[in-house]
Amino acid sequence: KQIQSFNGHSSNVSCVKFSSYHYHSHCQNVICFLSRDKTIRFWDFKHNKQLQIFNGHAGCVYSIEFSPFNGGRYLCSGSFDNTIRLWDVETSKSLHVFNGHECSVLCVDISPLRSNSKHDNNKMNNIGVIGGNGYKICSGSWDYTIRIWDIETTKQFNVFKGHRSAVNSIKYGSNELGNTILSGSVDKSVRLWDIRSGEQIQVFNGHTSNVHTVEYSPF
User: Fold this and answer.
1) How far apart are CA 170 and CA 146, in angstroms?
2) For an engineered disulfide with 114, which of 81, 134, 147, 195 has Cβ 3.0 to 4.6 Å away?
3) Cβ-contact 126, 135 below 8 angstroms
4) How far apart are CA 139 and CA 148, in angstroms?
5) Taking a C-beta distance cutoff of 8 angstroms, is the pair 94, 86 a contact?
6) Which residue from 155, 114, 107 is spatially nearest to 135, judged by alpha carbons?
7) What are the strands, taking DSSP E only, across 38-142?
């Protein structure tokens, strides 16, 4: 049985996720939608009410990830405009635009780890509070690369090359696998990468078509 229908986007909806940020006293009643109309929209599904619209991307918004810290207050988005944006869900503001990919960004993730790097409070930019804790963004693209971005410096931290086609999915490892990234590609392979060395650890072959999604086993 269909519970609710949400209308508002002017083009295809490319991705949906439940918002992990509990704001406006709506608790867990908020869904986030991405679309080819270049917007990100938040809906209160309990009251069928649109709460927010994020504008800024110049192309289809294809992927998002809520921050694993600060209760999901920060949102990372990847777009066909070749950029990654970091947003503050509380204020609806775009905090930074990360440029570097040569083609569409298909997937993004935010690291669950904190590095040992220290920041100078006197030199903070408006995302220094987040970045100072060592969090990083990972992105996969049609340019066949995986890139790591340092939130504090807003600079590209590393580039992983090895896939022979678009990178559809990426995922940071957690716990003992926290220094690794898993990726799936149109080249039919799944690859495991070492973040510290920047080297490829292993290639998993066997699929006969595109790999759309990857995930670490929780066991």
Assistant:
1) 8
2) 134
3) no
4) 7
5) yes
6) 114
7) 40-44, 49-54, 61-66, 74-79, 84-88, 93-98, 105-110, 136-141
Tell me what pLDDT residue 217 has: 85
Task: Report the length, in residues, of the chain.
Answer: 219
d(CA 46, CA 57) in angstroms, rounded, equals: 28
Please write down the long-range contacts of 153-157, taking CB distance under 8 Å and 24 or more positions apart.
154/96, 154/98, 154/125, 154/127, 156/98, 156/100
Residues ≥6 apart with Cβ < 8 Å to 206: none
pLDDT tens readout for residues 78-127: 999 999 999 999 899 999 999 999 999 999 999 986 644 444 433 334 56
pTM listed for this prediction: 0.85
Walking along the chain (219 residues) 10 residues at a time, the average pLDDT comes out as 71 77 66 86 85 93 91 93 96 95 97 56 49 83 97 92 98 80 98 93 97 88
- Which amino acid is present at 196? R
> Tokens 């207050």 map to which residue?
73
Q: Are 26 and 18 in contact (CB under 8 A)?
A: no
C-alpha 33 chain-centroid distance: 14
Domain annotation for the chain: domains and CATH numbers? 13-204 (2.130.10.10)
Nearest to 159 by CA among 150, 20, 168: 150
Q: What is the pLDDT of residue 21?
A: 82
